[in-house]
Design brief:
The protein has two domains: 135 residues, Aspartate Aminotransferase, domain 1; 239 residues, Type I PLP-dependent aspartate aminotransferase-like (Major domain) (Aspartate Aminotransferase, domain 2), CATH 3.40.640. It has twelve helices and 15 strands. It is α/β, with parallel strands linked by helices. The protein starts with a strand and ends with a helix. The longest helix is centred in the C-terminal third of the chain and has 39 residues. Helix 1 packs antiparallel against helix 8 and helix 2 packs parallel to helix 8. 48% of the residues are buried.
Length: 388
């Protein structure tokens, strides 16, 4: 039996062997605690952390002192939202209907604490309108939080235009760049970003480590820690630093950015190859998300006449995700597709909500894998439609 084909890179990415090689010394001989700087083991660990911090900073156009390491993007998002609110009077938060739950759930938490929350709609392609952001701003707006790229449909947001709008106010601009890291260029200065969340495992790095960029100049973003217990990470993330993970994240960021000029067009070609094959051999397909302003390897399709759970059960040799969730026997559309449907006056998106398939091509996929995956999906869809 051939190795299953992995096309679920929005969920996680495999650890790049080069990243693993760089991490191994810090799991073996350089095992010191980075806070123990009174001996060589601790100093070596601390130096490795700072080198990784510089690598992450360079990947997004930041300064190394502006990077705070966390356990992942979920924690980074929480630190950005809840840390900003720590010790301050309630304010106003603007976000979008298709943000990751780690943003939306913490926005609701702020709402329960007295904050005013504005959740902006998106258009039929899943994009936030800069003018909608402008209209939502008030003198009390403290933060605007909009993701760079959606984790389900792959749509890219117009960050430059939104950042320009936010810069004209007293609010701060937070971006969840979890899916964008290493896939599209990110420059926090050019985009006017004040806070930015990252995760290593979405960019061929290790799980369990992420980072939050926090602007220090020209205006320093003040945050409070989510919990107490030490002075690590400028007091914002107490606890022993995950040195191997941090080293891996730094290497993953450096590799992703350096290889992006060749990797993006390669992924785009593979995604288009997959899309063309499916569209050619199956009718009743509809693309979700923006047709052009999307991640190069991202493909999200609605497939008429097919139940997503049944489709996935027959694709055990192809790792993909359904764009919907099944709960207590009832198929429920994703909130992302619901938000798109609400913006579609034609009603076409409403019919696309249930049978949706999320595919994301990655660094180690080949043309042969793409062709075999397309064949398996076509075969399975035809079987299900014949049985209906």
């Amino acid at each position: 039996m051939k190795t299953p084909i992995y096309l679920d890179h929005h969920a996680t990415t495999p650890l790049d062997p080069r990243v693993l090689e760089g991490m191994l010394p810090f799991l073996r001989e350089h095992f010191g605690n980075a806070a123990s700087r009174n001996h060589v083991f601790g100093r070596n660990a601390a130096a490795a952390v700072e080198e990784a911090r510089e690598r992450v900073a360079q990947a997004i156009g930041a300064r190394y002192a502006e990077i705070v390491f966390t356990a992942g993007a979920t924690e980074a998002n929480a630190l950005a939202l809840l840390g900003l609110a720590e010790g301050e009077a309630p304010g106003h938060l603007v976000t979008s209907a298709i943000e990751h739950p780690s943003v939306l759930d913490n926005a609701r938490r702020l709402g329960r604490a007295g904050w005013s929350i504005t959740v902006l709609p998106v258009d039929r392609h899943g994009r936030v309108g800069p003018e909608d952001v402008r209209a939502a701003l008030t003198p009390h707006t403290r933060l605007v939080s909009v993701m760079a790229a959606n984790n389900e449909i792959g749509t890219l947001q117009p960050l430059a235009a939104i950042g320009a709008v936010v810069r004209g106010s007293a609010a701060l601009f937070h971006v969840d760049a979890t899916q964008a890291l290493g896939r599209v260029p990110i420059d926090v200065e050019a985009l006017g970003i004040d806070l930015l969340s990252l995760s290593a495992h979405k960019a061929y790095g290790p799980k369990g480590v992420g980072a939050l960029y926090r602007r220090r100049r020209p205006r320093r973003v003040m945050l409070g820690p989510l919990f107490e217990g030490g002075g690590q990470e400028d007091g914002l993330r107490p606890g022993t630093q995950n040195v191997p993970g941090i080293v891996g994240m730094g290497l993953a960021c450096e590799l992703a950015v350096s290889e992006m000029p060749t990797e993006r067009p390669r992924l785009l070609a593979l995604r288009r190859r997959l899309q063309a094959r499916l569209v050619r051999e199956l009718d009743g397909l509809a693309l979700n998300g923006h047709p052009e302003e999307r991640l190069a390897g991202s493909l999200h399709l609605s497939i008429a006449g097919v139940e997503p759970d049944a489709l996935l059960l027959g694709l055990q040799d192809v790792a993909v995700s359904a764009g919907s969730a099944c709960s207590t026997g009832a198929v429920k559309p994703s909130y992302v597709l619901q938000a798109i449907a609400a913006a579609d006056t034609t009603g076409a998106a409403q019919a696309q909500q249930v049978a949706a398939l999320r595919l994301c091509v990655g660094r180690f996929n080949t043309e042969d894998e793409i062709d075999r995956a397309a064949q398996r999906i076509v075969e399975r869809v035809r079987v299900l439609r014949q049985a209906a």
